Amino acid sequence: MKVNRKIICDCCEGSGSNKGKGTSVDTKCTTCNGNGRVFKTIKQGNTLYQTQAVCDACGGKCYVIPDNEKCEKCNGEKVVKDPKIVTVDIERGMKWGDDITFYGEADQTPGIQTGDIVFHLRPKSNDPTPFRREGNDLHLDKEISVRFFLLSLIPVFFSFRPSYLLAHGSPHWV
Question: Which of 106, 133, 128 is CA-nearest to residue 117?
């Protein structure tokens, strides 16, 4: 399965600066004065409304990196996109609702511990399979004709492909 995640830029090691690896050139945002939020006043008729919004200049980060000092690879974002293919192995006996966890494989952010990718097993809503699951068993309800029953043909299923096995009827096998 393809996972689009962000990893720390290897060019600037997450500083966002072109000044050298690990060098931070963050300066306080002058638009919001380092608060990450700005107050906007809106006039409608005779009424004034004051709202609080995320700063457009810094995106709520409270700091900016000057354009001439941004890392060329990540453009000062400190992280780059890294599509990764993960193989999800669904083992025998797993039930709906079980989780498959990939530890430390989620988005990376400088100074924050990397999270986990968790896959939650659930059935498809439009699954056309005739089987139903009860615990570790798969069940199939199928009507058979009297002639089929009397000729002692017993349906046997392997790998979800129906085949038939000729056997002699038994009073205890129904």
Answer: 106
Write out pLDDT tens, residues 109-146.
888 899 999 999 887 777 777 777 777 777 777 777 77
Task: Write out the E strands in the chain.
Answer: 2-8, 27-28, 37-44, 47-54, 63-64, 79-85, 99-102, 117-120, 132-134, 137-139, 153-158, 161-166
Q: With beta carbons less than 8 A apart as the criterion, state whether 63 and 29 touch.
A: yes
Nearest to 121 by CA among 142, 148, 93, 161: 93
Residue 141: Cβ-neighbour burial (10 angstroms; 0-12, 13-18, 19+):
exposed
Report which DSSP code applies to 85: E
- Mean pLDDT of the chain, nearest integer: 79
24-58 burial by CB neighbour count: b if 16+ within 10 A, else e? ebbeebeebeeeeebeeeeeeeeeeeeeeeebeeb
Q: What is the DSSP string of 129-160?
A: -S-EEETTEEE------HHHHHTTEEEEEETT
